[in-house]
Structures are given as C-alpha cells and as structure tokens.
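Preliminary data (for renewal application), nicotinamide-adenine-dinucleotide complex.
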Amino acid sequence: MVNGIRHWIDGAAADGTSGRFGQVTNPATGQVTGQVPLASADEVDTAIAAAAKAHASWSTSSLAKRTQVLFKFRELLDAHRDEIAALITAEHGKVHSDALGEVARGLEIVELACGIPQLLKGQSSTQVSTRVDVESIRQPVGVVACITPFNFPAMVPLWMIPMAIACGNAVVLKPSEKDPSATQRLVELFAAAGLPDGVLNLVHGDKESVDRLLTHPDVAAVSFVGSTPIARYVQRTAVEHGKRVQALAGAKNHMLVLPDADLDQAADAAVSAAYGSAGERCMAVSVVVAVDPIGDELVGKIAERARALAIGPGDRESSEMGPLVTAEHRAKVASYVPLAREQGAEVVVDGTELVVPGYEDGFFIGVSLLDKVRPEMDAYADEIFGPVLCVVRADGYRDAVDLINSSRWGNGTAIFTRDGGAARRFQLEVEAGMVGVNVPIPVPVGYHSFGGWKESLFGDHHIYGTDGVHFYTRGKVITTRWPDPSDGGVDLGFPQNT
Ligand code: NAD
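Predicted structure:
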C-alpha cells in the first residue's frame, strides 16, 4: 500500500519541501485521510532535471529493453488491480467494480505500448532517385509533462505514461491533488518493473507546479486532461513557451434516441451512462435528446430505473453509485436542480436530499432527472459533472442533430436506433470526436485514439493509439546516396530526382 503521499523523483520517494499541503478526503465518510505535498517551482525543477538526465540514455535504449519493462509493468498492474481500485475508491469515491473497470481500460494502453516496436516502425523507399534511398523515422521529443484530472486517477495517467516512455521520452507527472494515491502506486510499480531512475517522476501539486511545467525550457511536450477553462489555459501557456500540447477537456455528451429505438435498452443505457461514477466521467451521457413521440415513455422508463439505483459507499458490494469527490463539488452539483426548476424544467427525480445512513458526513447525492430542459437553462449550458441527467425534447432527427452540433463541446455522442441509414447519416453529420451507435459511452479501444472536438480538446492530436505515437515523437526523414565513382560535379540547381 502507499506509505504516505510523497513525490517520486529520480527513482526515490521524496518529502515535500515547500511547506504547502493539500488535504485528501474519503468522500464516503468525509474524513481527511491524507496530506498531499504541493510542490514548489524548485521541486518541479528538480524533477525536470532528473527527467532530462534520464532521457539521454532512455531515448537511445533498445526497443527490446523498453518492452521488457512494459511487459513486466503489465504483469504487476494486472496483479495489483484490486489494490489500485481500492485506492481509487478510498479517495475518489467511485464503486470498486467501476474502479476495476478504470484499471482494466488503462491496462489496454499498457498492452498497446508493449507492441511499440510495431508502432514505431519507420518507412523506407528504395531508389527514389538514382542510387538514392529515403527513410522516415520517428524519435522521442524529450521531457514530457503529464497533468491529469481527479476523475480517473489510474486510467488517464495510463493513457499517457506507457506511450510516452515506450516512445523513448522521460516524464514528469502531476496528478490531481484530490486523489493522488492510486497514481502514486502506478509510479511505484513502474519502478518495480525496472524502469530506470528518472524516466518517470511524480510531483504532487496545484497551479504552482503546473505553471512551472508549462513554462520550463526543458519540457518539450505537455499532455493534459481536465476541465475546459484549465485546458484552454494550459494549451495557450505551453504553446507560448514553445511546447507541443494536447489538452483534453470538458464535455456535455448527448444521446439521441430516435422513435424506432428499443426504449428499454435505450433507458438502460441512459441510466448507466448518466449515473455511473456519479456522472464524474468526461464521457458520461448528460443529455438525452428524445425525438417525439417517444419522449414521455422514455422519461418514464429512465425515471423508474433511476429511482431503483443503490447509492452507498464505494467499498460496499451492493452500491451501484458512490459519493461525489468533495463537499464543494457536491454543493455545486446540487444547486443545478432547484435552478432548473426555477428556469422551467420538470424535475422528474430529485436526488438532492439523499442521506446515506451511517455516512451522514459523506459527499453523497442522489440521482436527478430533469425533463423538458431547454438549451438556455444553466443545467444544459454547463458541464455539471454529477448525477444530473437532462432530457431535451426534439421534433425530429434534424432538430436533434442541430442541437447537438450547436454545443460548444464535442467529446462523445451516441444514437439509439434500429435504422441503419439514420445511424450512418448521424455518424457522418454529427460534430463530435467519438460516436456510438447503440453504444452510450464510446471510449475507443487502445489501438484507436481518444479525443473530442471543439472545446473538448485543445491541440491537434488525440490521445493514445497512433495519435499518441505521433504526439510523443518527432518525424525525421533521411535521404541517402552512396556515390558511384561517376557521380560528382558542382550543380547549383535545385536537387531533382532522376
Ligand atoms: P481540473 O481542470 O480542475 O484539473 C485538472 C488538472 O489541472 C489537475 O491536475 C489540477 O491540479 C490542475 N489544475 C487545476 N486548476 C489549475 C489551474 N488554475 N492552473 C493550473 N493547473 C490547474 O479538472 P478536474 O476537476 O480534476 O477533472 C474533471 C474535468 O476533467 C471535467 O471537466 C472532465 O470533463 C474533464 N475530463 C476530460 C477528459 C477527456 O478525455 N476529455 C477525461 C477526464 C476528465
């Protein structure tokens, strides 16, 4: 188990020296369970220096050496699934089975990275001109900063780290200060897998450490996942300081239900995708767009399922949904329900008064279902990031797609229908990076990349998959001639292929 929350720099745990700490709580009980050191700019500098030093040898290490470490890490992660899931539940609050699912999806990316020799293979063309060959290769970028959110303390770091180090980079990781222990455990397992000192460093912290990572001249690339305002800031600041950036951001994911859909399956999907992990997922369905005349029937089916959900501590086997991450976030989420009522929505299910016996100090909230929501209402316009599902009624397919496409976000979306033609049209017309057809949470598998459009992603690259390889490497093209004795002679003309 994690023995205290500490930085990890150059292959060893390090106590914080800034004198600043944050509090880590168990969201089910509301009790403070740990103190997280918040790194100063100097501590971040030390981690970057360790990474820069390690990068010199790691970047030239053989693919065989890198994959040995990754295969060993895969074994360790597999063996420690339960322990990591328990750490996630203790600090994030999500139920254990959901936490195990997060670890499993992270493991997929480790497995992808184990195949890095195939992914990094270059291209070559022989005899492009007389006695001239061309080879394209990809090389590591250098030191990569990885900054991650609270809602997936294992999976999101695993979207980044295996790919970044497999490509030959060194990493400084700054996880969320709200639930740092699962991430810290991953870093310890990488060390146990034989990753050389300094290749992966961990600094805990807040804005001060992030700002240093974004501006330090020795950081070449920044992978960020978090909320839209911070993602925008991270991208702008890091680009101004000459870095490549991928900043994945917030979302408001719409699920379109056409009248021909199987309404029981659609209601199951909406409830699972809206309330799973208490709605604290960037791919959560937060808006159902019901195409009339099925609106009333669909809302009835969703409400029936929502009322039956078992809400309790994440380490209780019968719990289907746990608490929110902090008291502050709970209060913010709860405020949207009365506001929606005031603004004219129908509150079909109101979960804001829920109390879980024995856990009165926990950050629990029940699930809420708002019907007849309109785009100008705050519950629609904001990313609530909690178990509040909005239903918007639409007159037809065109209305529904126009609504989805006018959203400022474009992370994931889904259509529920039995009509293949409508589904095909939707997948081409809808403005989002990830589309599900009868799949409510279309998180791509590891070998396809993950990313949204519009205000859900700042930067050009999606994360993991082949986009991950491209983000964590730079292209180089080598043109070679082995001259024949007959070659030679001065020629000031622009080189042409002959
Ligand atoms: P957040 O933006 O508050 O924090 C993300 C990271 O940025 C953390 O490491 C945090 O310490 C740091 N940070 C916070 N404020 C900062 C500031 N002012 N300056 C510099 N750094 C700062 O996000 P969160 O609340 O931890 O995570 C939830 C958000 O992340 C939601 O909006 C969710 O949609 C989004 N998210 C997106 C994806 C995706 O793939 N698009 C995946 C997971 C989460």
